[in-house]
Each structure stands twice: as C-alpha cells, then as structure tokens.
Design brief:
Elements (H helix, E strand, L loop, with lengths): L19 E4 L2 E4 L4 E4 L2 E2 L4 H10 L9 H8 L9 H15 L7 E3 L5 E3 L8 E2 L5
Antiparallel strand pairs: 1-2, 2-3, 3-4, 5-6, 5-7
Length: 129
C-alpha cells in the first residue's frame, strides 16, 4: 500500500476533516483517496490525490510551488521544484482524459490553483513546458 501524507495534511482549520471536496464536476473522496466524475473514478496516485486535495481546499486560491512541495510531497525546500511541475503536468493530462482539461491552472510566475471557472491571467498546467 502506498503511504499517503499524514492525516495532518488533510485537517481543516478547525481540526476536523471532511470526506468530500468538490471542484466543478470533480468530487474528491478522502476515504478512497481518489476523485470521481459522476460514477467514474480517476485512479489517482497518492501524490496526485494530495495535490488535488490541497488545491481544492480553496478553489481559485494560488498555492506557491514551494508550499505545495513542502505541504504535500514532504520534500525539503532545497529540492528541485521541477518534480512538482512534472507531477502537476501529468495530473493535468490525466484530468483532461476525464473532461477536466484546465481544472489545474498555473501562473507564469509560479504556483497552481484549481480553476473551476475560467480565471483571467492563468494558463492550464498541461500547456506549461
């Protein structure tokens, strides 16, 4: 079984957890550590789920590369951030296969956000090189 980040990564501000988070047509399920669109499960890897869960905490809010790396991947700040960019790009490609192209958006200056609606000034993560 793949280890997920500790439960502390999934706690809400008041110290409780919620099982579901919604992001447009995507429903994230903390119990299954996966997401679904209608009745189709995405088959997310642990890191993919952790990224989406963190971004779905506040859809539209920008999460810096370094914060996402430190919070979700338990990677030290000194590590290459290219790994997070590659992971987000692969995740964006997977989401596109479920009709969720553009759900993860990236700002050119860095950082990611869930764009459940069109957000000015962002570009889909799948199109970043």
């Amino acid at each position: 079984m793949n280890a997920l980040p500790g439960l502390g990564h999934y706690l809400l501000a008041e110290g409780t957890t919620t099982r579901f988070r919604e992001a447009g047509d995507l429903t994230l399920d903390l119990f299954h550590h996966d997401g679904r669109v209608e009745d189709r499960w995405l088959g997310l890897q642990p890191r993919e789920f952790a990224i989406l869960w963190r971004l779905a905490e506040r859809p539209g809010a920008l999460v810096a590369d370094t914060a996402l790396t430190a919070d979700l991947l338990r990677v030290r700040f000194g590590c290459e951030l290219g790994d997070i960019a590659d992971q987000v790009r692969r995740l964006a490609d997977k989401l596109a296969g479920f009709g969720l192209a553009g759900l993860i958006a990236a700002r050119p200056e860095g950082g990611y956000q869930l764009a459940v609606r069109a957000v000015p000034g962002v570009i889909p993560a799948a199109r970043l090189s």
